[in-house]
Amino acid sequence: MAENQKAQAKTEQAKGKTKETVGRTIGNERMEAEGRMEQSRGDAREAKEKTKDAFRH
């Protein structure tokens, strides 16, 4: 399950980066902000999984 969470984190980060870039390109501040928020969620999920891994080993 941890691998699934890590993959989901990477997916959120990539999706957020894409949304942020598109929002910036077309001048849509809301889309840009949503993209940054998705990236942050992905970063937080990745950090949580790394912390869990550190305690497992």
Notes on the structure:
- The structure is a single chain.
- This protein is mainly α and 57 residues long.
- Helix content is 93%, strand content 0%.
- The chain is built from two helices and no strands.
- Helix 1 packs antiparallel against helix 2.
- It is elongated.
- The mean pLDDT is 92.
Task: Give me the secondary-structure topology.
Elements: H1 2-26, H2 29-56
**What is the alpha-carbon Rg in Å?**
13 Å
**Overall number of strands:** 0
Secondary-structure-based class equals mainly alpha
Number of helices: 2
Fill in the keyword field for this structure.
2 helices; 57 residues
What is the gist of this entry?
This protein has 57 residues and is mainly α. It contains 2 helices and no strands.
